[in-house]
Specification:
single chain; alpha+beta; 4 strands
Amino acid sequence: MIDSFLFLVKSAFKSIFKNWLLTIGSISVLTICLLTLGSSILLFENVNLFIDKVGDESQVVIFLDEKLSVDDINQIHQQLLQIQNIKNINYESKEIAMQKYLESMGENAELFSDITSDVLRNSFIFNVKDLSKFEQTMFEIEKIEGIARIRERREVIERIRDISKIVLMLAIAIIAIFIIISILIITNTVKTSVFSRRIEINIMKYVGATDFFVQMPYFIEGIIIGILAGILALVFTYFAYNEIFAPIIKDFGLFAPLSINGKLFSFAVFYIIAGAVIGIVGSVFPVKKYLNV
C-alpha cells in the first residue's frame, strides 16, 4: 500500500518537472486567482469595517413632541429599548441641547444669550447596530407615537451599502473568471502529461489497473500545483496587505484597517484547500479519454 502511494507521488512529481513550463504557468495563474480571491475578501471586510464605523458615527436623533409629559417620554424610551437593532440610547433634554449648542459656538456664544431652550426639543440619540437593517429599524421607530421629527443620514448609509454590493459583485465576477482560467490551464498541463504517457496508461489498463489508480498521479499533480499556488498566494497576500494596502487605508485616516495577523491561519487553510480543489477539478477530465481501452 505504501509502495503504491509512493509510486503515485513519484509519478506526479515526475510529470510536474517534465512539463515544468506549463506547471509554472498553472501555478502562476492559480496564485493570481487565489490572491484575487483573498484580496477581495480583505477588501470586503474592510468595507464592512468602514460601514460599521460610519454607523457608529452616524447617530440617529429623534425629536419629541413638545407636548409630551415625563411619563410619555419614559414610555418612548421603553419602546426604543425593545428595538434590538439600536444601541447607545441617550436622552437629551432641550436644556442640555442648548448648552451643547452654545458651547459649540465658542466665542460667539454671547450672540445667542437671549435665546432660550424653548426653541429646541427634547430628543433621544442612538446608533444603529446593523446598517443592512437600517430601513427596517427606521420603520419600527416611525411607528412610535410622540415623535415630531427624525434626523438621520440615510443617503450616506445607502450609498455606502451600494458601494459594498458593487465591490462584492465585482469580486465574485473577477474570482469566477480567474477560477475558470486556472482550471483550463491546469487541464492543459495535465493533458500534456497524459498525452505523453498515453501508451503507459493503456498498458496499465490492460494489466488490470483500476481507473482510480491510473488517475491518482494526475490528481496528486493537481493537488501539488494547488498547494504551491496556495502557499505563494498566502505570502503575497500577507506582504501586499501589510506593506501596501493597510498603510494606504491608514493614510486616509478614515478607519483602522483589519489586521491580517489574526486571520493568517484561516487564510492558509483556505488558500491550500481552494488551490487543491481547483487543481483536482482541472485534473479530472484530461485522463478520461484514455481510460476506455
